[in-house]
């Protein structure tokens, strides 16, 4: 009888302990995953514009930005009538960004030809910097020193040609805007087709960049409601973070190239499912509806392709849960061009408003 009572008592204590652990875990989970349902941003004036140099580029676009070794490092697309290439520059404060020299990366082993929409991160297992970009395929180059623009290797592709699933969806669209983020076990490659489909592939961290799987559709919607320029981030430093997905969309309103804004989703896994957060043009993650401009100088109605400023620079793409800054491409609402490549996109920075 005594043994039976003792066992029952132990079971009760264990159950209560388990309940307390579950309750604590639930509280921690809520603390890690709670994001606001609405966002507010303040925009800088134009920070970076094309240089008046022999390149005569029309636009600077698609920035990827990190803060590392007391400097901001930016990789971006350059646009001219004939197409796109890549540029690198760095600066120590946003106030000096426009004075930073441009290093055109066609002078590195990345070479000339179509290269666009870069993403940069440090892949810690190999102690290498990776630059991910599009070249008609999903491409990458590596570098031991992010501050050495001549150190990038020649392009290599993740795939031999366009994967069949993506090819099937490309009519009237393009395979664009590759984005890599890794969790503890796998590296995931996201990409878009300009037709309302977001794709995801993966390979083990131990095999990266090789062995990328056939893509699956991660998210699907109407073309303009899930257009391109996805970003995916891990919120916080937990081994089980909340993931934040941003996708650029085209909404109602007058702006060159269509009025751009971002919708957002969250998930507990990079493989989804993705739950809508701020996901309408009226309540966007970022867009005309929730961005105010310095001194009322509304130099862009579109909030387009860019990236949250990262100071955790490794492949997990970790960011804090608030207080973000986002470098984006914007455009004069009065600009026009018969050739999209000639539209005069420039770069600015948003700062999230509101306390943590």
TrEMBL record:
It is found in: Secreted. This is Alpha-L-arabinofuranosidase. PANTHER family: ALPHA-L-ARABINOFURANOSIDASE (PTHR40631:SF2), ALPHA-L-ARABINOFURANOSIDASE AXHA-2-RELATED (PTHR40631). It catalyses: Hydrolysis of terminal non-reducing alpha-L-arabinofuranoside residues in alpha-L-arabinosides. Belongs to the glycosyl hydrolase 62 family. The lineage of its organism: Eukaryota, Fungi, Dikarya, Ascomycota, Pezizomycotina. Its main location: secreted. GO terms for biological process: L-arabinose metabolic process; xylan catabolic process. Alpha-L-arabinofuranosidase involved in the hydrolysis of xylan, a major structural heterogeneous polysaccharide found in plant biomass representing the second most abundant polysaccharide in the biosphere, after cellulose. InterPro entries: GH62_arabinosidase, Glyco_hydro_beta-prop_sf. One of its GO terms (molecular function) is alpha-L-arabinofuranosidase activity. It comes from the Eukaryota. The keyword Signal applies. Residues 1-15 form the signal peptide. Transmembrane segments: none annotated.
